[in-house]
Amino acid sequence: MLLIESIYTKLLTHPISEQSKFRDDENRWQHLHDQERYRFLCHMFKANVNIKDKMYRQIVNSQDSIGRIYRIVSTLDSVEPENIYNKTALVTAEVLDVSQIIIYSVGRDSAYLRQKVRIGDMTEGEPHSLRIDDYPYLQQMMKEHNLFINRDLIKGLPDLAAPIIYEGRVIAVIQVYQMDFDKWSTFELNLMAVTSRLVSTSLARAYTWEQEMMERRYIPGTRILKEKEFVHIIEELRERHQMQKGYSVTIARIDLPGMTYKQIDQRLGNQIRLEDYMGILGDSVWIMFTDVNKQTLALIQKRLAQGGVLISEAKEVI
User: CA nearest 277: which of 259, 291, 292, 289?
Assistant: First the structure.
């Protein structure tokens, strides 16, 4: 009888003990799973903290941080409009860590780019003016406002060029030359795009300032600078000479007796380069030839003489 009761008890309690064992095993497995999940989440949290700290240090300290870019570019806000092009070239060089840069401004007729400032010895041979129709990448940039990347390394073109946009149109172009191989990464290209957008406000300020100053700076109805403005540009170019050691400026007095300022302007309009200036010094009209050597000046004098314009005096002022 006792044996039968014992067997009967085991038969009744066995399922219960099996269920209990199963629950214990399940709880242990769940506990191990939770521990593993906890370790994984802890690892992810620490990794995220490390990434956050790294990004914070990058923003605060790194050479290529957004914070640093902003601090550098924001210095343009305190620069006088006539010197913004000079400062922008230096800012762009610092942000991108490059040494060969040219900034061109777009002419009022939107047909030519005129060199405003350059940095680096290797840019000395680059054109002082560019006819937009002669360069497909410039034509496309004017229409689409896109960054130009010279991936095919076409000779005679910049490695990188970025448009400066103001009121929906291109007013200037920043061109970079002789880039190091490690500067061709997507990050560096994006950095150029970001920088060009950040400096656009300051360059637009210089651009509008130049437009507003046109009537005050020039003899009415001509492109001949008043004496004060002519001297001011010479001083500005002297400052530019500090970062362009090979940059030179020569002024030449022209001999066109009996002609009015408007007549002189009409005579010289097609005889001088886009990057040169006409201005008053004393009682004479002078031409300012930027970035020329003796050989180039001799060729210019010959061309002017063929057009009936004689130079009575020439002197280097920078």
Answer: 289
| DSSP 8-state assignment for residue 176 | E
Which of 218, 213, 243, 207 has the alpha carbon at shortest distance from 89? 243
- Report the run of H or E that residue 169 belongs to, with start and end: strand 169-176
How many Cα atoms sit within 13 Å of 298 on the Cβ side?
3
Tokens 């370790």 map to which residue? 39
Longest dimension (CA), the chain: 147
Global pTM reads 0.61
Contacts of 308 (CB under 8 A, 6+ apart): 267
DSSP codes joined into one string, 101-152: EEEEEE-TTSSEEEEEEEESGGGTTS-SEEEGGG-HHHHHHHHH-PPEE-TT
92-121 burial: b if 16+ Cβ within 10 Å, else e: bbebbebbbbbbbbbeeeeebbbbbbbbbe
The string of pLDDT tens digits covering residues 38-89 is 777 777 667 766 665 555 555 445 454 566 666 677 777 766 776 788 888 8
Write the burial class of residue 78 (CB in 10 Å: 0-12 exposed, 13-18 middle, 19+ buried): exposed
Q: By C-alpha distance, which of 140, 134, 138, 161 is closest to 149?
A: 161
Cβ–Cβ < 8 Å for 199, 69: no
CA neighbor of 252 nearest in space, from 303, 286, 291, 294: 286
